[in-house]
Amino acid sequence: MRVNEVHGSDLAADLEALEGLPIAGFVLPKCEASTMAEVVAAVGASGSRPMPSLIALLETPAGILAAAEIAASHPAIVGIALGAEDLAARTGMHRTADGDEILVARSFVVLAASAARCWAIDTPSLELEDMAEVGRDARIAAGLGFTGKLLVHPRQVPAVHAAFEPSPDELARAREVIAASEGTGGGRVAKAGSRMIDRPVVEAARRVVARSEQGVKE
Description:
There is one protein chain. The chain has ten helices and seven strands. By secondary structure, it is of the alpha/beta class. The chain folds into two domains: about 110 residues, TIM Barrel, CATH 3.20.20.60; about 50 residues, no CATH class. Helix 2 links the parallel strand 1 and strand 2. The protein is globular and about 60 Å long.
């Protein structure tokens, strides 16, 4: 459930209105390091429910630059997400289909989430008709290391799911890498096709296979 930001009285009103509902977590907009303690305390003090899971939405320059601090600021934070449209409005950057202008912000979010061992969630695509474009944007996010993507409409779900699942070729290459590593006992440098592989390459391959298996279960 996305609530209003901490500034003003809207957040308190949101939490009061949601009291007693079976809500698993909250998306917290416009998070910055200076307000995290306040907003987490407000959510934790609302009612008698246990502390819900929290996703911090980073939509300001200060939020992006403090991504690592925000991601690690409380155990209830299960993910951090990029809000590129608000960020563009604040910075004056021109949004494009390729998204080159948000590459740095995307990378900050992925690195911070990885360091904190939480989810990295990409900014949503605002495209409502061209699902090929939605899928292309999601594949960029997946390639950068994001674990998921915000959506603005249910019709985007299949395209985004497909983008985050490994392609048959990716899965085949990953299994080839794992097999080559296991053939050496798993502890030495090996060769898969024309490529040298070592432990980081094998770990990446195992993540590809795990993503595929998770997709099958879902």
